[in-house]
Amino acid sequence: MKTFFITCFLAIMLRFSQAFRGVSHSTARTVRCMMAKAGVSPPEELKAFVEKAGDRLLVVDVRNPDATVEPGDLKSFAVAQLPSESYRPKAVNLIWDRTTNQMPLPSVPKETPIITHCGGGGRGQLAKEFLEKNGFENVLNGGGPKETECWAEFGDK
After folding, report:
1. What's the whole-model pTM score?
2. Domain 2-154 is classified in which CATH homologous superfamily?
3. Each residue of 25-58: b (16+ CB within 10 Å) or e?
4. Which of 40, 54, 104, 130 could form a disulfide with 143 if both were Cys (CB 3.0 to 4.6 A apart)?
5. What is the largest CA-CA distance in the chain?
6. What are phi and psi of 56, to 5 degrees?
7. PROSITE patterns per the record (predicted)?
8. What's the CA gap between 63 and 82, in Å, rounded?
C-alpha cells in the first residue's frame, strides 16, 4: 500500500512539473505568487505600481503586533518587522480587526497609491476591499513577507 501511494505521489509530481515545462521563469513566478492567496497582485504588477507611484506610495501593514491575537504573524515578524521610524518609515501599521472586519482608515487622499499587506495576503485582501468600499481608488494587495517574490517589489518601502 505504501508503495502505491509513493508511486501516485511521484506520478502527480511528474505531471505537475510537465505542466510548467516551457513556461518562462517570470510566468512561473507569477503563478506561484498568485497561487499563494487569492487577490495578491503578481510581482510584475506590483513593480509597475511602485514605479508609477514613486514617493506617493503608501504601504499599509495590517498585521497585529500582538502575536497572541494573530499567531501566524509571529512567523512573518521573523522575516519583516512592523514599520517604524528606522524600518520602512514610509509604511504605516493599521491593524485589520477580524472581529469587526474593519481597520482605521489612512489619513491620505483617496487617490493615493496604496499597497496593503499582512503575513501572507489574506487580511491584505480584506483590507484592500475595505479601503475600496471606503472610496480609496488605487489599492493593490501585496501579499506579505511569505510571498518573497511579491515582497521584493515593495517590502523595503
Report:
1. 0.76
2. Rhodanese-like domain (3.40.250.10)
3. eeeebbebbbebbebbbbbbbbeebbeebeeebb
4. 40
5. 62
6. -80, -15
7. RHODANESE_3
8. 8
* Backbone φ and ψ of 111, nearest 5°: -90, 0
Q: Which residues pair with 97 in a beta bridge?
A: 102
> In the chain, what are the domain boundaries?
2-154
pLDDT digits (tens, 9 = 90+) for 6-62: 554 545 554 555 454 554 545 555 455 445 567 999 999 999 999 999 999 999 999
Give which of 155, 136, 139 is closest to 147, Cα–Cα.
155
pLDDT above 90 for 85? no
Question: CA-to-CA distance for 1 and 61, rounded, in angstroms?
Answer: 47
> Cell 521563469 belongs to which residue?
25
How much is the average pLDDT of 81-88? 90
- In degrees and rounded to multiples of 5, residue 156 shows phi and psi of -90, 5
Output DSSP code: residue 97. B
